[in-house]
Amino acid sequence: MNEQNLQQNAEKRKRVFSAIKPTGNPTLGNYLGAMKYWGDMGKDCDTLFAVADLHAITVAIEPKELRENSKRLFALLIAVGIDPERDVVFLQSHVTAHAELSWLLNNYTMFGEASRMTQFKDKSKKNPDNINVGLFDYPVLMAADILLYQADIVPVGEDQLQHVELCRTIANRFNNRYTPTFTVPVGKIPTYGARIHSLSDPTAKMGKSEGEGDGSIFILDTPDAIMRKFKRAVTDCDTEIKASESKPGITNLLTIYAAENDITIEQAEREFQNCSYADFKKRVGEATVETLRPIREKYEKLRADDNALCELMKMGAQKAAYLARKTLDKVYKKIGFVRV
Ligand code: TYM
Predict the structure, then answer these.
(1) CA-CA to 257 of 20 to 30 Å: which in 191, 211, 272, 305?
(2) Does one domain contain both 96 and 67?
(3) How far apart are CA 88 and CA 41, in angstroms?
(4) Which of 323, 71, 245, 35 has its CA nearest to residue 160?
(5) What is the pLDDT of residues 228-264, one digit of tens each?
(6) Number of domains in the chain
(7) Residue 1 pLDDT
(8) DSSP helix/strand/coil, 175
(9) pLDDT bracket for residue 218 (50, 70, 90)
């Protein structure tokens, strides 16, 4: 390899893939743990982002809700800064290669490996009447999402890291069984915000379901709703604004503030040194309102024109399908399927 080739390889743009599921209402946790960084990554990397609608049906969902949630999330991805011209943004079900590769990868995933997934165990406990095979297979579909695009980096919140690890295991197994086929990706979580907790129960994850009420800040919440929820946020009976394991409520609020302002927890602590809890909660609420305001405004504009939104979906699906097909053809050949 000559020097020029070496340099070109070193400078090769990294490929990034991530996705979000259209269940429930997207939260500040989704934003600070993942979506916040997705727009910027497109400056230096080739990025692909999907609305993981196939993943949404592992838990019962009404057709109308699935349709509305998928459109809402697609518009939100653009509203947080993903550029549909520069980046690839699409609905997972629009690219059939995801389901195809998922079937193939099932045969390179061990039952025991899938059984160990924490999210499968948690969701099985929450929905004992609907422990379906899709729920079990969920991480294999995720692996297909990532591997189809030969992604180097998968930016996610902490709860998805175990699934990315399983994806690495599957990719390595396939590469060793045949010849190198898939890029083995790494999961990347942000320094602050990888796990945002509920405002009403700071030991639990901030979740998307409406039932989580005052504990979850939704990206599309009105300023009034945001301020009201922060006002009610659980703190403790102390007065010190310092992050520590024994102060989960305060730590969560400091984390939110630090992630929103791109500062460290220590810097956030200094800003609130002599503040009362009431003032502190108000200021974190205000910072959140200002963080989410431009997103909500852009979102509303995008939702005003359904046809334009559908055109953007088609464009994203076309770009994604082209890349996905290249990997899928390679995989079929390697396994030994007859190609004509
Ligand atoms: P989902 O839809 O549950 O969440 C989308 C992203 O938001 C992150 N996240 C959080 N981060 C911090 N604090 C929280 N409270 C919080 N809640 C959620 C998640 O970690 C995630 O990054 N299975 C995935 C979607 C998916 C996917 C993929 C992701 C499908 N295929 C391929 C990566 C690669 C999911 O359900 O994410």
Answers:
(1) 211
(2) yes
(3) 12
(4) 35
(5) 999 999 999 999 999 999 999 999 999 999 999 999 9
(6) 2
(7) 45
(8) helix
(9) very high
| Statement to judge: residues 278 and 171 lie in one domain | no
This model's pTM is above 0.70: yes
Same domain, 268 and 325: no
CA 160 to ligand 1 centroid distance, Å: 6
Query: Do 167 and 150 share a structural domain?
Result: yes
In a domain, 238, yes or no: yes
Taking only the tens place, the pLDDT of each residue in 100-141 is 999 999 999 999 999 999 999 999 998 899 999 999 999 999
Domain that residue 257 falls in: 210-301
184 and 241 assigned to the same domain: no
For residues 163-188, average pLDDT: 98
Residues 41, 173, single domain; the answer is yes
Kindly report the number of other CB atoms within 10 A of residue 97's CB atom.
22
- What local confidence, expressed as pLDDT, does residue 263 receive? 97
User: In this structure, are 90 and 186 located in the same domain?
Assistant: yes
Whether 204 is in a domain gets the answer: no
Query: Which residues surround ligand 1 with Cβ inside 6 Å?
Result: 18-21, 29-30, 33-34, 52, 55, 142, 145-146, 154, 156-157, 159-160, 193-196, 205-206
Q: Any catalytic annotation for residue 43?
A: no
Catalytic residue among 21, 36, 71, 205: 205
Residue with tokens 């069984």, as numbered in its chain: 177
18-51 residue pLDDT tens: 999 999 999 999 999 999 999 999 999 999 999 9
